[in-house]
Amino acid sequence: MIDIFYKTYSKDFEWLSHSLRSLSKYVTGYRNIVILVPDADRHRFDTRNLPERTLIHYVKEYGNGYLYQQVCKIQGHKYSDADFILFSDSDLIFDHPINLQDFIADGKPEILYTSYNKVGDAICWKEPTESFIKEPQEFEWMRRNALIYHRSTLEAIDKYEPNLEYIIMNSQRFSEYNAIGAYAWKYEREKYNFINTDTWEYTRPKAVQYHSYTEFEKMKSEFKDL
Questions:
Q1: pLDDT over 90 for what percent of the chain?
Q2: Residue 119's pLDDT is what?
Q3: Which phi and psi angles does 9 have, rounded to 5°?
Q4: Other C-beta atoms within 10 Å of 43: how many?
Q5: Cα dihedral 9→33→88→192 (10° resolution)
Q6: Which CATH superfamily is domain 2-217 in?
Q7: How far apart are CA 108 and CA 105, in angstroms?
Q8: What's the rounded Cα separation, in Å, for the pair 167 and 67?
Q9: Cβ atoms of 184 and 153 closer than 8 Å
Q10: What's the pLDDT tens digit per position in 27-76?
């Protein structure tokens, strides 16, 4: 079974509303939707009209919010007991029918990867990922959003680096998806379908990634059918 995981906050609530509508319209093959909301934003979060099977966790957010949301994701196993967790952003809009079960072939979620020589500005994730995994990194693992991971991988990472929350919150830069991808490649390669983008035949992404810092009013017309 698959749970869908969001970490959101007040400035993204409008985006989240549209993401959830798009999910309800187009996405099947999941169990629950898990949403983490800062306790400080509890009074702003409208719990009416949420999709069925939505579970809400209020968390004691602190420090840098961008880093804290990465802590929440890499600790997703603490909020979901599903076999697999799909991570969605509030500004990720599903735009066509998909069954999430189709993205786990023979029990193996797909992870795309690209040589760091070809990723442009994403080279910035190389050093922090090397620091986490404690060896040089050849590949970047955050090539497409709405990534699905084994929950057991997150549990294993928690044991591999029990001080990870402290490390992330005291970092200048961190990439939770690159950390997970690098760990899976090194220790759990048999559990995932790793695909090098050099030899990859393009497939349509699960959803459209917007950017929450874009003025929301300019995008509303694109979501009129949700």
A1: 88
A2: 94
A3: -155, 175
A4: 7
A5: 140
A6: Spore Coat Polysaccharide Biosynthesis Protein SpsA; Chain A (3.90.550.10)
A7: 5
A8: 10
A9: yes
A10: 999 999 999 999 999 999 999 989 999 999 999 999 999 999 999 999 99
Strand ranges in 91-207 using DSSP code E only, listed in sequence order: 92-93, 98-99, 104-105, 108-115, 139-140, 148-150, 193-196
Rounded to an integer, what distance in angstroms lies between the CA atom of residue 92 and that of residue 22?
9
How far apart are the C-alpha atoms of 137 and 134, rounded to whole Å? 9
pLDDT tens digits, 193-222: 999 999 998 889 999 888 766 666 666 666
Q: What is the pLDDT of residues 83-111, one digit of tens each?
A: 999 999 999 999 999 999 999 989 999 99
Q: Rounded CA gap, 145 and 210, in Å?
A: 11
Q: Say what the pLDDT of residue 219 is.
A: 65
- Residue 120's CB is within 10 A of a number of other CB atoms, namely 10
Picking from 187, 184, 207, the residue whose alpha carbon sits closest to that of residue 195 is 184
Measured between alpha carbons, how far is 223 from 187 in angstroms, rounded to an integer? Answer: 41
Rg (CA), the chain: 17
Terminal CA-CA length for the chain: 26
